[in-house]
Design a protein that fits this description.
It is built from nine helices and five strands. The protein is α+β, with helices and mostly antiparallel strands. It has two domains: 111 residues, 2-Layer Sandwich (Beta-Lactamase), CATH 3.30.450; 56 residues, Orthogonal Bundle (Arc Repressor Mutant, subunit A), CATH 1.10.10. The chain has a five-stranded antiparallel beta sheet. Strand 1 and strand 2 form a beta hairpin.
């Protein structure tokens, strides 16, 4: 027995994973789980850019085109990324995307968002490493963190490099994902 359109709409709205339909990086519609994950009502998100769901404009711009190669050949795309709730708190999320329009990959995209579990314990960090992670989480550059801590920017770069190696992270976004809440 096939589901009717009203039943399909209810299933979408109440699915236990965050689901959103977007067009050119603008939220067209989303379900209750997605909206609640970010601290909004679905109506507040409709018509808004995904940029409001990222910790900073820079992170939005860095991640925005990563899935296009896969989507443009009709393949799904997935990754893990740092996102931001309405109250500014950050959380790590697994994102999966599929396009309805491979010839124009971002014209009609269906995405699922699943919040990931807590990062490793912060006890593995020294006090100085925690200060650097906190600065990075605030979106500060190495020079800004250095100025704030009274250190050289090269020292901050060395600490950042050690943190990447220590955690096995490939980049700063991945590093931050491991320490949300530090």
């Amino acid at each position: 027995m096939a589901a009717d359109s009203a039943e399909i709409a209810r299933i979408f709205l109440h699915a236990p994973i965050g689901i959103v339909h977007s067009g050119h990086r603008v939220i067209r519609t989303c379900n209750l789980t997605f909206a609640a994950m970010f601290g909004y009502d679905p109506e507040e998100l409709a018509g808004r850019s995904f940029e409001i769901l990222y910790p900073s404009r820079r992170e939005f711009e860095q991640i925005r085109d990563v899935g296009i190669p896969a989507l443009s050949i009709g393949r799904p795309y997935s990754d893990e990324r740092l996102m931001a709730r309405r109250d500014g708190s950050a959380f790590w999320c697994r994102v999966r995307a599929s396009t309805l329009t491979p010839h124009e990959p971002l014209a009609s995209v269906i995405l699922s968002f699943a919040e990931m579990s807590a990062p490793p314990p912060s006890q593995m960090l020294s006090a100085r490493e925690r200060q650097v992670v906190a600065g990075l989480h605030k979106g500060r550059t190495s020079k800004e963190i250095a100025l704030e801590l009274g250190l050289s920017h090269r020292t901050i770069e060395d600490i950042r490099s050690r943190l990447l190696k220590k955690t096995g992270a490939r980049n700063t976004t991945e590093l931050l994902s491991r320490f949300v809440g530090v």
